[in-house]
Amino acid sequence: MKLDKKQLPQLVVLGVLVLACIGYVSFTVFKPPAVEMKPPEPKQAEKTDLGVATVRLTSQPIQPTAAFPDLSVPIARRDPFTVQVLPTSATDGAGKLAPVKPAAGAAKVATMASSKVPPLIPPIGSFTPTLSVLPAVQNPDPDFVLTGVILGWENVAIIRVGSSERHVVKQGQFINGRYQVLVVTSDGVVLACGSRRIHLKLGGVRNAS
């Protein structure tokens, strides 16, 4: 059987309608039952075995108790050059105690005790200590003997001190750290000890000035 070209669109439309009817019938027959969404029932207080109801507490946010300062308002600044008067309490005058007067008996005891104590510092003019200055003791000079003189670019003297010491010195040096050699010549040697001068000559002759 050959189909006419004019009948082909009609058959296509008819097939689409049949498929739509079959789909609708199958959906209405096999669709699951509708489930009603009910809000959950509020839970009642749970009872324990002893019959005491337990109440569930819900936490609430804590309200701030301190008030925050308003930063939009400028803060008044204190002038450092102005004197501020501090508030004084009315009880300042009442809180001050009157000065305690010393008893007359205590004053008498103090005067009697002080009259018997001898003065620690004597009166001026009663005692004049005498000050005595002791002269400084000077050590005696040792025995110097000029035993020889060497003449040259720098003159050298040979001096014997006491009975055992012998020093070979030139001008400017010290003997025993105390006596300085001032002059060395062929005639003799001059030693200095502070402001004193000691003249030595060959042969042991010594003149001090």
Task: Please characterize this protein's 3D structure.
This protein has 209 residues and is an alpha+beta fold. It has a domain of 65 residues: SH3 type barrels (Roll). 20% of the residues lie in helices and 22% in strands. The strands form 3 sheets. The chain has a 5-stranded antiparallel sheet, with no helix packed on it. A 3-stranded antiparallel sheet has the order 3-4-5, with no helix packed on it. Strand 3 and strand 4 form a beta hairpin. The longest helix is centred in the first third of the chain and has 24 residues. The chain is elongated, with a radius of gyration of 67 Å. The protein starts with 6 loop residues before the first helix and ends with a strand. The mean pLDDT is 72.
| Oligomeric form | single chain
Strand order of the largest sheet: 6-7-8-9-10
Q: What spatial form do the alpha-carbon principal axes imply?
A: elongated
- The number of helical runs is 3
Spell out the helices and strands N to C.
HEEHHEEEEEEEE
Indicate the proportion of strand residues.
15-25%
| CA(first)-CA(last) distance | 179 Å
Return the CATH topology of the domain at 144-208: SH3 type barrels
**Tell me, what is the CATH class of the domain at 144-208?**
Mainly Beta
For the report, how would you describe the main beta sheet?
Answer: 5 strands, antiparallel
How many E strands? 10
Mean pLDDT, all residues: 72
